Amino acid sequence: PTPLPICVTGDPVLYQIAAPVTEFDARLEALAHSAMVTMDAAKGVGIAAPQIGVSLRFFIVASRANERYPDAPNMAPVVMVNPCILAASNELVAGEEGCLSVPGKRLSILRHQWLDVSWQSLDGETHHARLEGFVARIFQHELDHLDGITLLERIE
Ligand SMILES: O=C(CSC(=O)[C@H](Cc1ccccc1)CC(F)(F)F)c1ccccc1
Ligand SMILES: [Zn+2]
Q1: CB atoms within 10 A of CB 38
Q2: How many Cα atoms are found within 13 Å in the side-chain-facing hemisphere of 58?
Q3: How much of the chain, in percent, has pLDDT values that exceed 90?
Q4: In 3-state terms, what secondary structure has residue 142?
Q5: How far is the CA of 43 from the centre of ligand 2 (A)?
Q6: Which residues are catalytic?
Q7: In angstroms, rounded to a whole number, what is the distance separating the alpha carbons of residues 125 and 132?
Q8: Count of beta carbons in the 10 Å neighbourhood of residue 147
Q9: Residue 98, Cβ neighbours under 10 Å: how many?
Q10: Which of 34, 66, 82, 137 is most buried, judging by how many CB atoms fall within 10 Å of its CB?
């Protein structure tokens, strides 16, 4: 499908608590595909459903090496439905983040260094993993979007 418009600062959908996904059906797959195409067109390393106007709890994590994080892993994009943080490091790390919904801003944000997380894939299967570094950062950034929090609400 064609990329969708990305909601930007001020759009109410960005400040809502997104609803859990209960139907793992073709509609969800179509929404996830639209988010993927939109993220790719915007050259992002992640995108959350509320950013395309959908207040549902899923996002995509798609780390790739970039000038700010040259050692970031190049990973196949992962669609994470109903994501949860099960445990997080006490250690926090500051790092530069951008947001497709806050165009032109680069802010230094404190994030947990590692996370134990769980999520469901599009087929409804549950997965667990330990994330660290840039991938953990993207996860925390996208999870904020599901809870109505953008970079601007994270300024120390
Ligand atoms: O590709 C971007 C553009 S911003 C981006 O990809 C957001 C994800 C993100 C970038 C950097 C750190 C954490 C999350 C996507 C968003 F807004 F939809 F969530 C980038 C920005 C800063 C560092 C590395 C990469
Ligand atoms: Zn964002």
Answers
A1: 21
A2: 28
A3: 96
A4: helix
A5: 12
A6: 142
A7: 22
A8: 14
A9: 17
A10: 137
